[in-house]
Amino acid sequence: LRTNELFALKRFNVYDRETRKQLVQEINTLYEVSCPSLIGFFGAYQKKGNIYVILENMDRGSLNDLIYNYDDMPEKVLAAITYQILWGLGYLHYEKRLHRDIKPSNILANNSGEIKLTDFGIARELDDSNMASTIVGTFRYMSPGRLRGDPYGPPSDIWSLGVMLIECAARSLPFPSSNTQIELAQALEELEIDEMLPPDFSDEFCEMVRLCLAPAPEDRPRAEQLLEGPWLEKFGVADLDEAVAVTRTWLEDHPLAEGSVPSGLDASKMISTLHSECSDDSDGSYDSEEDAKAEPK
To answer: Per the residue annotation, which of 59, 101, 157, 287 is the catalytic one?
Structure first.
């Protein structure tokens, strides 16, 4: 049945061992989770050495697009976006899973105002110890403990959120001169959070960032505690529906420029074109495709 519904296809080269490992992890996570703040999964298929994972299409691209393409995101909108991120993180942590790569490019948006976590290729299901130890992810968003190789748990995702909040507010990453894990670890030893906080944001926002970036993991709040925190309360973002509505209103006032395509999406490619190019190597790029013709699983 042809529906003309848009989906996103994530393409993997099955001959690459590491890519194959991440593919298995991503499909397992997508298949087992169900949360409105996590990307929707509609199945997968194989063709000519590639596996295609069919995902919900997020037509406004990533949070990275929203940060750097617009310079007037109000604090209330950032609070609404953060609420949805925390909702997804809270769900993952409740299910004893870590995302391990929270960053703007792994947070997607659609015109309905929904914000969703994606890219679960290095997500991890926790054992009874509730800790992990492998150093994977984007190092600029890693907590000090992860950089040192210490065991880590859900507070490591909260640290990444704190770094991302600074990036959203300042429209730049902290410690831009730290080009290696060692350099960043050294910079974090001398971290002065107040020096990185934007002066035009509320005291409640600054306190939330301080909590997320607490040096000791046990001092960082859980996602569900942050959902009830004073920053979100200040802007009246008290539930998921309100968070989506606030985000949607702002996006409606900031439409995509005519002819522009959100990062990672190429709506001009149709499924027939993709099928003719299936032999191309890829390590997981995104294309926006029409009518993926796959049964949901």
So the answer is: 101
Whole-angstrom Cα distance, residue 56 to residue 288?
10
Quote the CA–CA distance of 106 and 62 in Å, as a whole number.
Answer: 7
* pLDDT for position 258: 63
Residue 142 has which token pair? 């890693």
253 is catalytic: no
Three-state DSSP state, 42: strand
Topology given in CATH for the domain delimited by 61-253: Transferase(Phosphotransferase); domain 1 (1.10.510)
Residue 229: name the closest of 213, 212, 242 by CA. Answer: 212
Count of other CB atoms within 10 angstroms of residue 209? 22
Strands (E), the chain: 6-13, 41-47, 50-56, 97-98, 107-109, 115-117, 124-125, 283-290
Residue 8 in contact with residue 287, Cβ under 8 Å? yes
Own/partner long-range contacts of 23-31 (Cβ < 8 Å, ≥24 apart): 23/51, 23/53, 23/121, 23/284, 25/120, 25/121, 25/122, 25/123, 26/53, 26/119, 26/120, 26/121, 26/123, 27/53, 29/97, 29/120, 29/123, 29/125, 30/55, 30/120, 31/297
Please say whether the beta carbons of 131 and 93 come within 8 A.
no
52 secondary structure, DSSP code: E
Alpha carbon distance 76, 176 (integer Å): 26
Quote the tokens at residue 288: 């926006």
pTM value? 0.81
φ and ψ at residue 260, rounded to 5 degrees: -85, 155
Domain 7-56 superfamily per CATH: Phosphorylase Kinase; domain 1 (3.30.200.20)
Domain assignments of the chain as residue spans, ordered by start: 7-56, 61-253
Please give the average pLDDT of every successive group of 10 residues along the chain, which has 297 residues: 79 74 73 86 83 89 94 94 97 90 94 91 50 62 88 93 95 83 83 85 96 95 98 97 98 81 47 40 38 35
